[in-house]
Design a protein that fits this description.
Order of helices and strands: HHHEEHHH
Low-confidence stretches: none
Mean pLDDT: 85
CATH topology of the domain at 5-84: Arc Repressor Mutant, subunit A
CATH superfamily of the domain at 5-84: Winged helix-like DNA-binding domain superfamily/Winged helix DNA-binding domain
Strand order of the largest sheet: 1-2
Shape: elongated
CATH class of the domain at 5-84: Mainly Alpha
Number of strands: 2
Number of helices: 6
Strand content: 5-15%
CATH architecture of the domain at 5-84: Orthogonal Bundle
Length: about 130
């Protein structure tokens, strides 16, 4: 599965912030440089992470972004879900439901059905 650029950036910035001492507030520019992400794009990602409750945004001269302490327990799936939304999670559920063996069996059944249709179509009607 390939992550969107936004999800990739979110994971990168969250891992970086998790490595900082708790309570550290970091300016957008500093975060963008640290994780090598365009500042304008990272601002949007951080805004989404703030709405999801994983990050706190602080205004003013000492402002910036701070990791919410409970985010230290967040999984990568939590971060991706905050960016991509539950539709991505639904897709993961669907993808994890069937095994390769089950899918191969379905393909075999489908091939058998198609060959029966082809034989029936080639048989002249009396």
């Amino acid at each position: 599965m390939q992550l969107t650029r936004a999800a990739d950036y979110a994971v990168r910035v969250m891992i970086h912030m998790a490595g900082l001492p708790l309570g550290t507030t970091v300016r957008l520019r500093t975060l963008a440089l640290a994780v090598t992400v365009p500042e304008s794009f990272l601002a949007k990602v951080l805004q989404t992470l703030t709405r999801a409750g994983l990050v706190v945004s602080r205004r003013g001269p000492d402002g910036g972004f701070e990791l919410v302490p409970s985010s230290m327990q967040a999984s990568l799936l939590d971060v991706i879900d905050a960016i991509e939304g539950p539709a991505q999670i639904a897709m993961l559920t669907v993808l994890s439901r069937d095994t390769l063996g089950e899918l191969a069996l379905r393909v075999d059944r489908s091939k058998a059905a198609m060959s029966t249709i082809a034989v029936d179509a080639a048989t002249p009607v009396a």
